[in-house]
Predict the structure of Histone-lysine N-methyltransferase SETMAR.
Amino acid sequence: MHKKLFVKQASLVNRKGPILLHDNGIGTLAKRWKKCIESNGNYFD
């Protein structure tokens, strides 16, 4: 019984990980776009 519960908890933790990483990636991308817009599109040159 305890082993089954542990497996379920592990899968919940693993599901949460990529979502948090995904959210951080979106925040970084938004900051880069903001810099690009503020520099009149010359940010990537």
Summary: The radius of gyration is 19 Å. The mean pLDDT is 61. DSSP finds one helix and no strands in the chain. The CA atoms of residues 4 and 10 lie 10 Å apart.
